[in-house]
Amino acid sequence: MKLLEDKNAVIYGGGGAVGGAVARVFAREGARVFIAGRTQAKLDTVARDIAAAGGTVETAVVDVFDQAAVERHAGAVASAAGGIDVALNAVSVMHDQGTPLADLSVEEFMRPIDGFLRALFITSKAVAPHMGHKRPGVILTLSEPGAKLAVGGILGHAASAAGKEAFARILAVELAPSNIRVVGIRPHAIVDAPAAGSYTKDVFTQIAAAAGESVEELLDGGGLAQGTLLKRLPTLSEIAETAAFLASDRPGVMTGAIVNLSGGALVD
């Protein structure tokens, strides 16, 4: 039996690098996948891959910051599919990395905090009423090692990452009585994401330029990879496969946890 057989999974940011990778693996593992995002062309690319592999997928253009639209979409999915079993918010928010406090504006500092946490709040609030009870539900979240790294120049990024992890833990407490698990995934920078999408490349452009390197050199052969115990960064496949396992019934007693996929950049 496949890991996610007969499960209904909603992925916000499903046209992006991480969201698309997770959607493909979820579909391969038997889930009926609903991918939402702001760009139909990106969603269509993922949907074609899933359909070609024999999976079941539906797309919807949804602005994750439009709470009413997200709630309408979640309600429509639940009505059509009979409920929502798994949800992942993989929406990315462009933000500054590399600027110290003295040169950082309050707007730059707040951008990732407001963006990431607002999106996580809106999507979680929308799907939770359609999950759990007799049919176990799972909400997966994404953060970054910045939540715990002692590195300068990432004030907004680090605060948003820590906020997402705190959000996941407290949400797990609130939703446990409804038979909904909440598990956070903490990958490091993703080594093959620049080839799949622009988010990682854009975020690290400033840091790479300051080091006199390309983004690929910084990620794969530079300080980020060498700063891990394994001397390498996670791949999109590793993140997606982990997400599928966590969304399945196999780790059914795991909730309120943050799964460390940093390659040993952090040792919990």
Automatic annotation (TrEMBL):
UniProt xrefs under PANTHER family: 5-KETO-D-GLUCONATE 5-REDUCTASE, ALCOHOL DEHYDROGENASE, PUTATIVE (AFU_ORTHOLOGUE AFUA_3G03445)-RELATED
Similarity comment text for this entry: Belongs to the short-chain dehydrogenases/reductases (SDR) family.
Gene3D superfamilies: NAD(P)-binding Rossmann-like Domain
Family matches, as SUPFAM superfamilies: NAD(P)-binding Rossmann-fold domains (SSF51735)
Keyword S-adenosyl-L-methionine included in the entry's annotation: no
Domain of life: Bacteria
Protein name: Short-chain dehydrogenase
Annotated source species: Asanoa iriomotensis
InterPro entries, sorted: NAD(P)-bd_dom_sf, SDR_fam
Cross-referenced Pfam families: adh_short_C2
Keywords from the named record: Oxidoreductase
